[in-house]
Amino acid sequence: MDSEGMGSGSGLSLRQINRIIKKIKVEPGCVLVIKADSAINHNLQAFTDELKKLDIAGNIVVLVAADMSDIEKAPPEAMRKAGWYRQDDLAKMLRSNPR
């Protein structure tokens, strides 16, 4: 194992994985869709192990998709009907409907 605990040649260090997790702002109920050919997927066990260490009360779902084109091109209205929300849409909803 290297100094980051990932082993040499694995693509991402634990430090890089933690930076990614902080950047995407993982919250309870998140659904993370990861490209099958991404560095994260190649380090999926380490990525999910780091997610488990977060102090988050609630489930986090990690999906690996071979083809992201359908998700990237989906109109927001169709996504909402299917129960999927983009982060910006959720933030707007929460600001307009505080409790």
Structure characterization notes:
It is a single chain. The protein has one domain (14-96). It starts with 13 loop residues before the first helix and ends with a helix. With 99 residues, the protein is mostly helical. The protein has a two-stranded parallel ribbon with strand order 1-2. It contains 6 helices and 2 strands, in the order αβααβααα.
How is the topology of this model organized?
Elements: H1 14-24, E1 31-35, H2 39-42, H3 44-53, E2 61-65, H4 69-73, H5 76-81, H6 87-96
Parallel strand pairs: 1-2
Helix pairs in contact: 1-3
Q: Characterize the overall form.
A: globular
User: First CA to last CA: what distance?
Assistant: 48 Å
Give the low-pLDDT segments. Answer: 1-9
How many structural units, i.e. domains? Answer: 1
Query: Strand count, sense and closure of the main sheet?
Result: 2 strands, parallel
Mean pLDDT figure: 75
Number of helices: 6
Output the helix-strand order.
HEHHEHHH
How many strands in all? 2
Largest beta sheet: strand ordering: 1-2
Give the radius of gyration: 16 Å
Strand residue content: 5-15%
The helix content is 40-55%
Class by SSE composition: mainly alpha
